[in-house]
Amino acid sequence: MEAVTAVKPLIRVAALSGSLRKTSCHTGLLRAAIDMTKESVPGMEIEYIDISLLPLINTDLEINGTYPPVVEAFRRKILEADCVLFASPEYNFSVSAPLKNALDWASRAPNVWADKAAAIISTGGSSGGGRAQYHLRQIGVFLDLHFINKPEFTLNAFQLPKKFDAEGNLIDEAAKEKLKQVLISLQAFTLRLQR
Cα 108–112–113 angle (5° rounding)? Predict the structure, then answer.
């Protein structure tokens, strides 16, 4: 008699980086997460969603219930995802302007964030972006996003040993393991919400 193994359904993750820099450590965190899903977190597929082309939110751009094509495409990607992974830098104790802009565009009627599981990862100075994470959670209450609570992922990018290479790629093994645990938690929480 053959053993039956349970196969986890594929979880589609929309991944957004709040930093637009070419060598952004936040985008590097997302690249590391994408690599992990291919190697050690089966059942997840992460798609990086570029928010750099979104125009600044302006309701004058909404015409007869439609949005500019780049905004429509972005909203469709969020709608089709099962959950969201935010890589959120901390700017002045809050989320970055590009990330807030993306949050606002996808919240326009109908709100495509609604009832999705989400996780936040961040890096930066001494708090590792923690204050921005709490602000993003506050914004998520109105958007009806459901964030995992644990594990939290904040990373002091300037503390030795070195965490990122010159291109913004995550090279710290302890941080990679912590990131893997976030992905596993996000996967489990997404499946729980889908029941």
Answer: 105
User: What is the rounded radius of gyration, in angstroms, for the C-alpha atoms of the chain?
Assistant: 17
What is the rounded distance in angstroms from the CA atom of residue 176 to the CA atom of residue 157?
A: 13
What's the confidence (pLDDT) of residue 81? 98
Q: What is the mean pLDDT of the chain?
A: 94
CA atoms within 13 A on the CB side of 84: 32
Q: Check residue 9 and give its pLDDT.
A: 74
Cα 5 to Cα 156: distance, rounded to the nearest angstrom: 40
pLDDT, residue 195, reads 86
DSSP 87: E
Nearest residue to 13 (alpha-carbon basis) of 42, 39, 38, 48: 48
- Which is more confidently placed, 125 or 87? 87
- Mean pLDDT for the stretch of residues 49-54: 98
pLDDT digits (tens, 9 = 90+) for 57-83: 999 999 998 999 999 999 999 999 999
For the chain, helix, strand, coil in percent to 5 are 40, 20, 40
Which pairing describes strands 83-87 and 146-147: parallel, antiparallel, or unpaired? unpaired
3-state DSSP of 116-159: CEEEEEEEECCCCCHHHHHHHHHHHHHHCCEECCCCCEEEECCC
**Rounded distance between C-alpha atoms, residue 78 and residue 54, angstroms:** 14
Single out the residue of 37, 22, 23, 154 nearest to residue 86, CA to CA: 154
